[in-house]
Specification:
Elements: H1 3-43, H2 46-78, H3 83-94
């Protein structure tokens, strides 16, 4: 198998995995954080507040990672470093 094609497939698998996992993670954590914060306020239990801080940090980290990854991809495309186009060009040269 061609090296460029193999790398493109690995890149695609990585991208699809994150596009599958992160939206569910961030959308699913929002209601959990609301419920935990509500329980913390109603019961006064500090364990709920600690859970809110932990899951809020996890949600913020996941969202930040996605924003940075999208920004880097957009900058790469603007500079003409789009991997899909370069892979296709290289495959056309090899055939």
């Amino acid at each position: 198998m061609n090296d460029a094609l193999f790398l493109h497939r690995i890149h695609f698998a990585f991208t699809i995995t994150f596009h599958y996992l992160f939206p569910q993670l961030t959308m699913g954590l929002a209601p959990l954080i609301v419920v935990l914060k509500t329980l913390a306020i109603r019961t006064g239990n500090e364990a709920y507040n600690e859970s809110v801080r932990f899951w809020g940090w996890a949600s913020l980290s996941a969202t930040s990672f996605l924003c940075i990854a999208c920004f880097v991809a957009r900058c790469a495309r603007k500079r003409g470093m789009d991997t899909e186009k370069s892979d296709v060009t290289q495959l056309e040269r090899n055939t």
